[in-house]
Amino acid sequence: MFRRYLSLRTPHQECTSILDMSTKGLSGAFLLIDVDNTICLRKTDEVDEAIISFLLQLRRDGRVKEICLLSNVVSRSQRRVDRVARIARKLQCNYVCAFWPWIKPRPEPYREALTKIGAWPEVTVMIGDQLLTDILGANKLGMRTVLVRPLGKDHFITRPRRIWERQVTRLRRIFNVTSPSS
How far apart are CA 146 and CA 164, in angstroms? Predict the structure, then answer.
């Protein structure tokens, strides 16, 4: 049971940036991508041109069928939803904003995103910067997962989770735990 707990919090791939992730095996895959600190800094809608080009190229090459941004916006603030919508327009993709209490890692926002892009978990990759939300929720549904380093400072709610993430990562290494179905 303890190994299962750690396994669900273990990404299939870890990298510094979305630009460094391996695209091997992405033939016709679907991508779900977290927003804050994964592709842009919190409270901005500025996405690095290299990230935009990289993702659009994956779609043009046929390695990715569809992309959907998946963001916990927590409160029903139209300003926050509009921000995610602007980012999605830049990436020419769909988006799902998860509101409290139905936020990642609960399955509902992932399922909504999968439905929106016509995908299913087995051929979908979730990319995010948090083990306890992005990676955990996607692994529970059977998706492949990519953990990237956060681009900037964390929200005050996220900071305590980072301490727990470090402990989980340390335990994964001690017990040599791998990601689910790897």
Answer: 18
In the chain, the number of structural domains is 1
What count of Cα atoms within 13 Å lies in the side-chain half-sphere of residue 11? 22
Rounded distance between C-alpha atoms, residue 110 and residue 154, angstroms = 22
CATH number for position 65:
3.40.50.1000
Within a domain: residue 13? Answer: yes
Locus of tokens 């921000």 = 83
Of 89, 106, 99, 115, the C-alpha closest to 32 is 115
Residue numbers of the domain that contains 28: 7-174
- What does the pLDDT look like over 120-133, one tens digit per residue? 999 999 999 999 99
Give the pairing type, strands 64-74 and 144-148: unpaired
Residue 181 lies in a domain: no
Q: Does residue 1 fall inside a structural domain? A: no
Strand segments, DSSP code E, in 59-137 are: 64-74, 94-99, 124-128
Partners of 33 in beta bridges: 69, 127
- Entry pTM: 0.93
